[in-house]
Specification:
Main location: membrane
CATH class of one domain: Mainly Alpha
Distance between the termini: 38 Å
Number of helices: 19
Shape: elongated
Strand content: 5-15%
Keywords: ATP-binding, Cell membrane, Membrane, Nucleotide-binding, Transmembrane, Transmembrane helix, Transport
CATH superfamily of one domain: ABC transporter type 1, transmembrane domain
CATH architecture of one domain: Up-down Bundle
Membrane topology: Multi-pass membrane protein
Number of strands: 10
Structural class: alpha/beta
Radius of gyration: 35 Å
CATH topology of one domain: ABC transporter transmembrane region fold
Subcellular location: Cell membrane
InterPro entries: AAA+_ATPase (IPR003593), ABC1_TM_dom (IPR011527), ABC1_TM_sf (IPR036640), ABC_transporter-like_ATP-bd (IPR003439), ABC_transporter-like_CS (IPR017871), P-loop_NTPase (IPR027417), Type_1_exporter (IPR039421)
Amino acid sequence: MSKSSDLHQVPFFQLVNFLWKSCLYTKGCSLFLVLCPMLWAAELSLMPYAIGKFLDCLHPEVTYKEVLSPLFLFFSALLMVLISYRLFNYMIGICMVPKLRSRLARIGLSQVFNMSYEALKEELPGKISGKISDLPKVVPELLEMFCWKVLAPLIALALSLILLNQKDKIFALITFIWAIFFITANLAMVPYLIERSAQFAQCGNQILGVISDSILNAFTVKIYSQEEKEDSYLKKNCKKGEITEKNLQWAYFFLHLCLSLCYVAMLGLTLYVAFHQFKKGKISVGDLAVIMNLNLGIAHVLWESSFEFSRIAQHLGRMKQVLEMFSSSALFVQEPKKPQHNVKAAIFRSPPSIRFDHVTFSYSPEVSLFRDLCLTICSGEKIGLVGYSGAGKTSLVQLLLGLYSPDRGKVLVNDLPVSTMNLQFLYKNVTFISQNPQFFRRTILENLTYGCEDITLEQVDSACSQAGILKRIQELEHGYQTVLEDQGSPLSGGEKQRLSIAKAFLRNTPVLILDEVTAQQDAITEQSIQISLGALMQGKTCIVIAHRLRVVTLMDRLFVFNHGKIEQIGPHDLLIHQNGLYKKLWDIQNSTSSLPIKNL
């Protein structure tokens, strides 16, 4: 069980702030997010006004000169809307959005790398990928919707109220009261809709994570004939998504029902008042045309915006559940941070010492794994960590790498606490090889030189030769340019391990950590890999985790762990003659007698 980490709650104003910071990325283009809606709103208001002026000019002896002014106003308004759309397409669609999507994708990935190891372990990879891909999708769409479905209608409403007030104040008052009710109702529902939309998006990404997990383990599913179980598990998650979506759609249903009744009432009242005002001679035919066109136009625009509120709330919800996964630093659109130079670089000029100073650590408050642990590894020393599974060997390494923080005490490298180090700098000086090496779906050369700077092909050849993998690579049709497929194919398990060792030769870091590197290899492959590792460990501070005790017999010292405690310390030749846990494990692994097998 891991320590639970609460999501960083993102309030509404910080979502707006994130959008604002996104706009500022391309300041010149962002101006058109305001300019284009202003031109469009002007067209929406001026065109009915021009039509009304044109109707008032009509009489049997009308001249072209009399209608020239309203016609000019009409076509000017038409030209404004054409210009606004073309400007928006160019400045936003071409100049701004592609760059913004690219930056948001990079920020999303960099924030994932800034997440704690604990938080990453708690999330399905497919779920995280879904969240990252949401960010560059929803932010540009939100900016566009804000431009055309929020800002433009508000500007159009303000201009329409000014024009209606000039014709008759009662029409401006009716429209104003209706618009206030309409906007208030939508805004009041925004927090609720955002929360429900975030839950719906969370369910969607969970489903994506479950599907990705099943696909990654497709062979296991097939070999155990568990297709129905996977379908049942997916169905269970989909059911949660169905319930969440239904709750969201019910909220929209009642909101739009109330607004539609208000919409009909406003139009009916406007028609009734307009009819009476016209009968009393207070407004002309042109005024009537202006009033009805403005009211119908504004009502239609606000009504459309109300339906778009559902999309806006959904997109804000999706953005919210992405940002909640990150720390508060993700709320500001910044360039991904470049690695900082560490002033303590001198500590890695030679193999460093490592010390665990009275370390207490637990994955849960109920049970402590380490309690007041003290351990010292000297500079250039090669030590082995052995013991039962779950005894704390891997946890010790994770504390050293800063993946977890001790509850009490310190982990020090050359007397410098790991907690005060720039972890990027620390990782540049540590090589970690696990029993299940992971590779990118890239070429062998790209995988070998990943994280290595200024590496020549001659150095790559030398490292591969030392690791005993050069001949195998040369046998491949495309050599170093062979793309590694899923699970590192076409390389075997032993060959993948040798590739990891070759990479370690290239990195040549002063600290080397080996975690069960030969656990899944046959005896011949294990012996061959051991020879390569012997050369690799020269001149380094080495930590070797092993269950196969033959792997650590030549280590300077062994630490025997049991339930988070160190029971024995010493070299193999000493521990083998002590009546302790190490001798017990050694005897079990090297017993010449086999356990009895029951008759089948």
